[in-house]
Please model this.
Amino acid sequence: MASSPAHRSRVLATPWSGVYGSLLDSGRHFGRHWHDSYGLGQLLQGAQRSASGRGSVDAFAGELITSNPGEVHDGRPLGSDSRRWRMLYLDPEVFAAMGAASGSGTAELTRPVITDARLRLVLARLFARLDAWQAGPTALAALACEQALLRVLGLLLERYSTAVPQPAEKAAAEMATVRERLADAGGYAGAPVPSLAELAAPLGLSRYQLLRRFEAVHGLPPHAWLLQLRAERARRMIASGSALAEAAAAAGFADQSHMTRVFARHFGLTPGAWRPQ
Model:
């Protein structure tokens, strides 16, 4: 009697309601089915053949795979006994709120299989940040996840959908207001970190528009800018004689090791290098 195909699967949490992930390593043949959400993921190992709204398609390791709500598809291994893939599923209202920067209510993804080095890179960064959030679900980690997700959705909309986002325009005065709110509300220990939605709402912008305009004006996305601000505050405190742990806590870092990693990335030096001689 033939043994059943190998199958391992796991549901992955995210910071958002209406969004979940999955990781599968499976040799199963999945029959025709559909989801009521948008799907985006990457084939990590192996290959598969599947039906889609645009006919039969083949996907190979490294390529991205997508599905629209209600799109009937299936899937089976191609050329081997198994394949491994990771997916992210977004409810349509979440997809529209996070991704539809053009203001259009709905968008259809036009490519069931995508070969795009840049999109693959930003999706990998999103998955890495989601893993970091799962290990330590802080507000700052959630903000990093949200920014990564918006980058993914922005590229997806611009390149592979029926809705094209409007180009971002520099708005120095508006983005200065956002910068000041980040500095006041999210730059100190115990202060809540504002979400992108909270930053965007007073300006009538989508989160994607806010992200692009802030980076265009200030050279960094809000999450990276806030980390830089905290690093500068901690650096000044250390140079003035504060203990490393005290500076890390006062500047809003999760702990001293988090501060050390940020210092190494931003300054190329450890926090201790700033101690008074």
